[in-house]
Amino acid sequence: MAWFYAAEWPTFAPPLTDGKVQHNGILMLDQGPSHSGIFKEPEFGGPFNYLRMRREVFGTTGAILITRRQNYFEVGGFDEDLPLNYNDVEFCAKLRASGFSSVVDPEIRVYHFESATKIGTFKCEKEKLFRLLPEVDDPYFNPHYDQRNPYYEISTRKNVYPADSIEFERSLDLHIRSRKKYLQSKDLKFSLAVSVYNQSETLLNEMFSSASCQTYNNIEIVILDNGSKNAETLSWLESIKGHPQVTLIRHEENQGIMGGQRTLLEKATGDYFLPMDSDDFITADCVEIMADAALRNPDVHIFYSDEFKSDIQSNKFSPFYKTDFDHLKIMNCCYVGHQMMFRTEYLRSIGGYSDDRSTWCHDWDSTLRGMEHGATIMHVSELLYAWRINPGSTASVETGKKPEAVASQRFVLERYLKSRGLDQTLIIEENELGPNTGMWTLRAKKTLPHISTISANKLWLLSPRECASVLRAACEDSEYVLLLLEGTERYKAELELSVPVHLDSNVKLVGSALLNDKREIVWAGGLLDDEQNIIEPSSGMDPRQGGYHGQLYCQRFVDVVAGGNVLIGADILREALDASGEEIHAERLMVLLSLIARRRGWLIATTPHLEAVLPQEMKPIIPLDRDCFLRDQGLAGRGPWAGSPPLSVSRTS
């Protein structure tokens, strides 16, 4: 036996109650390491009085721990990369791996005054713990006990939990544990840049812990005190002076959001610049994963990752699995923010943070400036950033409704259109489809020329041979063919469907939202999954609910559109008809158009601003690819607009 150890409880440690157990052996729950019997009275024993017994446990707390000096040094002692939390868990795991065991004796009682400094700072250290212990399990905690409960209660149907924040956090922790460890580079340096203004110490501690415990070594943490007057903030800033990774700068007076970002960019010495908000945090391997993307893609100028939300208690929830870069959707909302990474010199060269009129949306401004200058923008499909929903944050809904924030967004979007000469055909308007702030939409000033219109209702009732003949004739004297559903105003359809083509002539198909008689979505744009199945994740939804992270409010790129209220370029339509021979039907045509677009690098878009109820007899125009045509074509990987595959971790992982 390697060591012997006592249970403990605090006499006074808010928010704990006097005399309650704080620790009676470490156990591994779904949400990570916890303490057996925590918050219970010392007399609580659990089933068979188990918690009152001297027993072997996964580990014991470092607050009171006895071990042989020789054993301590043989296994390497506490890991200094875990300076505040979980160093005892990692140490116990190393002892177990060396053939020793850990014992707790609940009859030995120690009073421990819990430190308040670690509140809200442990998430990144837990992630790092799981990176250090990729195969960690707890042989002393029976899987038939409730895996979220430290009281050894039998699991029943009542405590089989649905997908929620704890389940997501567990899945994310396991995913981080299994994520590949990438090579370190001495040549590439990364600057984490944070502007601080009168922020609370608790949130600053968590932000800084996540930045300073990164698994990638060659980083600097550039922190700007943007004129803080709050004593708590100033004390925290003083406490990080001298940290080997920190460059600390101060503005005597607040220079605003954009002024702060300018200073950070000016002082950064890294090859890549990663802005962070002072109340957010990142995963422990965030920079390592972004660095790998940079090393593999040296010609990319701007990177962005997936993200999730966090609350004031640092719970993780609401993952946002993003798509590849969509230069249509970016005109509707700034979905790329968090975590963004820019080549530092490139961001300087395009005037990053140079215009105070962009203050309330500097990430959006930087992205659009990059687009204006031909930047390559890459999606890193990993969850790396926790965006905190904090009422005091500049990113809160209350802030987003401020007139100056709305004006800032409008300025950035209109400036981009003007820089590209697109203001002659497109205008920006606030998106009124949903309640979300920061949502905009493009409107066309005029329709595309030379559009030939065909009644979709009549066309798809014809024989396949007649359909092919009608479509060929429509291509002869037009640049675009509109398949219009009855009851839809022609001019409105032409105007709405012209928008994506005005933005980018590489768009060859534009579809719309098709609803059932209950006003639920039947089809708003299909996506290709990993096995080349066509899926429509918004099917059955109320379009006014916005769908996944509000995307149903957005003009956006998709992989497949349906055969009604759709605009088709005559060139791609001719190619599809040539490939199909003498006959064509709705489903095969739309699937074939998707294949041609994918192979040629053409784009397919959809708009939420044109809706129609699809008659029952028109359901066959929905392109489900029932005969698995796409699957047989040897296409590789998910469609670019399907987004990152969600985490799926079994409970036995």
UniProtKB/TrEMBL annotation:
Keyword Transferase: yes
Entries under InterPro entries matching the protein: Glyco_trans_2-like, Glycosyltransf_2, Nucleotide-diphossugar_trans
Keywords (A to Z) from UniProt: Transferase
The keyword Transport appears for this protein: no
Gene3D superfamilies: Spore Coat Polysaccharide Biosynthesis Protein SpsA, Chain A
PANTHER family for the chain: GLYCOSYLTRANSFERASE, GLYCOSYLTRANSFERASE 2-LIKE DOMAIN-CONTAINING PROTEIN
GO molecular function, a single term: transferase activity
A Pfam family this chain is assigned to: Glycos_transf_2
Residues of the Glycosyltransferase 2-like domain: 191-350
Top-level taxon: Bacteria
Protein name (Swiss-Prot/TrEMBL): Glycosyltransferase
